[in-house]
Amino acid sequence: MLLKLLALCLFTFLIYVPIAEARIRHYKWEVKYEYKSPDCYKKLVITINGKSPGPTILAQEGDTVIVEVTNKLLLENLAIHWHGIRQIGTPWSDGTEGVTQCPVVPGDTFKYEFKVDRAGTYLYHAHYGMQRESGLYGSIRVSVPDNFKEPFAYDYDQSIILTDWYHKSTYEQATGLSSIPFVWVGEPQSLLIQGKGKFNCSSASLTANTCNTTNPECSPYTITVIPGKTYRLRVASLTALSALSFQIEGHNMTVVEADGSYVEPFVVKNLFIYSGETYSMLIKADQDPSRNYWMTTNVVSRPPNTTQGLGFLNYYPNHPRRSPPTVPPTGPIWNDAAPRLNQSLAIKAHHDFIVTPPTTSNRVIVFLNTQNRINGYVHWSVNNVSFTLPHTPYLIALKKKLHHVFSQTPPPEGYDFVNYDIYNVSKNPNATTSNAIYRLGFNTTVDIILQNANTMNVNNSETHPWHLHGHDFWVLGYGEGKFDMNKDPKNYNLVNPIMKNTVPLHPYGWTALRFKADNPGAWLFHCHIDSHFYMGMGVVFEEGIDKVGELPSSIMGCGETKGFGKP
């Protein structure tokens, strides 16, 4: 009897004592403008607690992250998106102004609270206007649960964010994009590696007070390595415009993770990376330890009129500021699309971590990406419709049944497949604007076909990185030319497709995605190039809105939500 009682007590103890307890990670941020010189040129930069990039959020799978953000921008609203975090159960914390919340006005403090439900490499960045490119961004690194073994080994872990950098303010850029005649933002002045770059101050008539290459703020970014050790480099891109190539002189890089999913490992000399993507790569510090090596990043898919981004891989105990004895390696040929497509095709799910997609979908939506004119203004469009945000955020309007605040006419789900010529400037470049959304059946499977085409410039088709909020999707395939609804689905990868949240649409090509509409909320799907989204390149999906919990009053206060949630 005593043995039975002891066994029962032990069993009860095992039930009620957790093996590992999820934690709360609490951050308090002040967001404000400060004068900084990230590429040696002094300009106003948005900082978080005085820094750009902002603090890295460190958490473990299952933790709850709380970020209290105080807007001290004085004259500017803000919103912060947690890029790659699915916000399951907390769609109001997605941080997408106009979709999931009203913006945070100057002087206010807003609390974002969400669960990081899986390990991986993620990002955060501004999601108000074109604010992201002013410096409001940073890394989210979510570690695996205790006792979980990843499918690769490494000694040290390092995060790097690649960005491009403009000297003109976002207001100047947005005004040009919204003007007649149209004023394009042009190519960025610099490329930054973890917030550091080097603009050629002698290239313009600039005073030392404005541009100073001896400023320590723009000294090359350095990663120090110990010979013989293996490093996990979490490389992400948050460029405003540029597709990039990243390389480390003399070192192979083994890709092992993409957007939080484990990859069947493959080796690259240079990594092609598009805005919104994250990768983990393993490098071994196995080269001559008596010297340092270049880290470089270059523009691809556009004429390279931007200074190359430079950093140092510092082999300890060499001085971290000791310049490598070689010339920085040049990147790949900017207009050679074949290697970029080949890398996209090479990314498969790790054989031990395959999430098998549904074999069929309930709905197929084709999105033709085009450049258009509307009343003389230049826009980007999807199926000839340029997206605009309503004054009342969709999540609130849908939950409160404010049907009149956005168009109820369903947007088009395709284009004239037979007659549209994707290789030439459209004979009729005119389009329309709309704030209508796509209503998805809850728990249904949806296929998205992204179809690229010629812009309004002859012989020109641009790379578009598309990012989906609130979900991961299976990447079923890529192709060149016009997608064939009868033939191409037969070649989908349904065996080991990678799951991602951001994917490139290559010039004159197509990309096929599949996802489950299983996360109640309103979710943005858009081109991650700042100017393209500003000019209308995006859509919104609604799913399971009746299953969304009570909305916090903190997300309200704009449009028709003024006074909502207040006694």
TrEMBL record:
The keyword Zinc-finger does not apply. GO terms for molecular function: copper ion binding; L-ascorbate oxidase activity. Its cofactor is Cu cation. Residues 31-144, 159-317, 426-544 form the Plastocyanin-like domain. Its main location: secreted. Its EC number is 1.10.3.3. Residues 1-22 form the signal peptide. GO terms for cellular component: extracellular region. The keyword Disulfide bond applies. InterPro entries: Cu-oxidase-like_N, Cu-oxidase_2nd, Cu-oxidase_C, Cu-oxidase_fam, Cu_oxidase_CS, Cu_oxidase_Cu_BS, Cupredoxin, CuRO_3_AAO. Keywords: Copper, Disulfide bond, Glycoprotein, Metal-binding, Oxidoreductase, Repeat, Secreted, Signal. It is found in: Secreted. It catalyses: 4 L-ascorbate + O2 = 4 monodehydro-L-ascorbate radical + 2 H2O. NCBIfam families: ascorbase. Belongs to the multicopper oxidase family. Dimer. This is L-ascorbate oxidase. It comes from Quercus rubra (Northern red oak).
